[in-house]
Write a structure and sequence with these properties.
- The chain is an alpha+beta fold.
- Helix content is 40%, strand content 20%.
- It is built from 5 helices and 4 strands.
- A 4-stranded antiparallel beta sheet has the order 2-3-1-4.
Length: 124
C-alpha cells in the first residue's frame, strides 16, 4: 500500500469506494476495528486509540466516500490499513485459503488510493 506516515497531530484519509462495493469495504472496516480492539501489539494499540472510520452521506465523484479520522496520530508510524489488518491476524488466519479471497474482495472495493490530509490545529 501507499506509504502513509502522517507528520501532523491529526490525519484524515479520504477513501473512495466503488458504489457497488460498500458492503465489502464495511466488512473490511469492521474486521480492522475488531482486530485492533483485540491486538496485543503496543504500536497497533496506540494507533487504535485515535482511529475512527466514517461513511460520508455525500458521494465522492461517482464513488462512495469513507473517511478515516486519525486523532491523535502516532508519529512516524505507517497507516497502511491493509498492513494494519494483516498485523492483527494470526499466522493460521493469514495462511487460510479464504484469506486470499478476502484480500481480493477488499482491495477490489477501492476505487483508488486514499487521499491524505495532514491537519494541524489553529486558533486554539
Amino acid at each position: 500500500g501507499p506509504k502513509l506516515s502522517i507528520a501532523s497531530p491529526t490525519g484524515v484519509l479520504l477513501v473512495p469506494i466503488k458504489p457497488d462495493q460498500t458492503a465489502a469495504f464495511e466488512e473490511f472496516a469492521k474486521k480492522l476495528k475488531a482486530g485492533l480492539a483485540k491486538s496485543t501489539d503496543p504500536q497497533l494499540q496506540e494507533q487504535a486509540k485515535g482511529f475512527k472510520i466514517f461513511k460520508s452521506a455525500e458521494p465522492f465523484g461517482k464513488n462512495a466516500l469513507y473517511v478515516i479520522v486519525i486523532d491523535p496520530v502516532v508519529p512516524s508510524v505507517e497507516y497502511d490499513v491493509f498492513a494494519m489488518l494483516q498485523k492483527t491476524m494470526t499466522p493460521d488466519e493469514l495462511r487460510a485459503p479464504e484469506t486470499a479471497e478476502m484480500w481480493k474482495r477488499f482491495t477490489g472495493a477501492f476505487a483508488g488510493g486514499p487521499s491524505l490530509l495532514s491537519l494541524t490545529p489553529i486558533g486554539q
